[in-house]
Amino acid sequence: MLNLIAKWLKLAILSLIKLYQKTLSPDQGWFRALYPNGFCPYSPHCSDYCYQAIEKYGIVMGVYRGLRRVLRCHPWSKGGLDPV
Asked: 7 is in which domain, residue-wise?
């Protein structure tokens, strides 16, 4: 039963990330026209990184790694390639 709840929670979180990417994301959503060179200095973008981390490490560790990445993403960061 707990495994089923974890799967549904993981699916819900991943669906929310996809919704964010398609709507509010400055790199992939409606506002991408405002940032022609992209907003996130990292590759993959922060939301893609979070999505991949949750798929690879599960909910708790994936969210933790995703939040760490989002906190590192600011205008003064060097950016670059940062795989999961």
From this structure: 2-81
Using alpha carbons only, give the angle 20, 21, 24 rounded to the nearest 5 degrees.
55
Residue 66: partners with Cβ closer than 8 Å, 6 or more residues away: 46, 49, 50, 53, 54
**CA angle 31-40-23, nearest 5°?**
30
**What pTM value is reported for the model?**
0.89
Structure confidence by residue, pLDDT tens digits, 46-62? 999 999 999 999 999 99
Domain count, the chain: 1
Element (H, E) at 80: strand 80-81
Kindly state the tokens that stand for 16.
């929310």
Model confidence pLDDT, tens digit, residues 18-43: 999 999 998 888 988 888 888 888 99
